[in-house]
Amino acid sequence: FNVRPYVESVPVAALSNRLLAVVDSLPLRSGLRVLEVGCGPGAAAREVADRVGPTGHVLAVDRSPKAIAQVNESAAELIAAGRLDARCVAVENLVLEPGEHLYDVAFAVRVGALDGRHPDLEDAARQRLRHALKPNGRFFIDGGDPLREVDLR
After folding, report:
1. pLDDT over 60 (residue 9)
2. What's the rounded Cα separation, in Å, for the pair 107 and 91?
3. pLDDT for res 153
4. What is the rounded radius of gyration, in angstroms, for the C-alpha atoms of the chain?
5. 3-state secondary structure of 137
6. What is the pLDDT of residue 83?
7. Does the CA dihedral 27-29-31-37 come out positive or negative?
8. At residue 70, what are phi and psi to the nearest 5 degrees?
9. Where in the chain does DSSP place strands (E)?
10. Residue range 137-143: average pLDDT?
11. 64 class by beta-carbon count within 10 Å (0-12 exposed, 13-18 middle, 19+ buried)
């Protein structure tokens, strides 16, 4: 008889109260392009994709291949619909792909290169974000109530 090997599937991460407060505090509306830095398993990215709707787009980036694999699995429908992309890259190395449109909003929660834990990476990370955002784009990071806006100029 045929025995299928056990394959553990990655559970879809629920949105914690803390991440729900973060997403609620973002200035989201239909059609926006949003960049999440340090997306982890993608719970916030999926919620943001729902909020910006079918004409919006989310790019979820994380330096961890495991995290990006989780996003790819948990957000497969959003990715297939072209509403979300996941990319394995550290923010200080982020470069948009040729023809990729700039983003309206970016946010980061617990990202060492942006929250002071790795000051040697902060200048490069901020420069990469400046290049990924539209001239009037807005950047938010944890440390406020729950977020604070950071001027990247």
Report:
1. no
2. 11
3. 83
4. 16
5. strand
6. 98
7. positive
8. -65, -40
9. 33-37, 57-62, 84-88, 103-108, 133-142, 147-150
10. 95
11. middle
Q: If residue 100 lies in a helix (H) or strand (E), which one and from where to where?
A: none
Quick one: DSSP state of residue 11?
Answer: P
Contact 56/80 with Cβ under 8 angstroms? no
Residue listed under structure tokens 């961890």: 64
Length reported for the chain: 153
Per the listing, tokens 């942006």 go with 114
| Crossing angle of helices 43-52 and 17-25, rounded to 10° | 40
Mean predicted confidence (pLDDT) in 54-71: 97
What pTM, to 2 d.p., does this model score? 0.90
The pLDDT value recorded for residue 19 is: 94
Write b or e for each residue in 31-52: b if 16 or more Cβ atoms lie within 10 A of its Cβ, otherwise e: ebbbbbbbbbbbbbbbbbbbbb
Rounded Cα distance between 87 and 103, Å, is 15
Across the chain, mean pLDDT equals 91
Distance spanning both ends of the chain, measured CA to CA: 65
- The CA angle 109-149-107, to the nearest 5 degrees, is 35
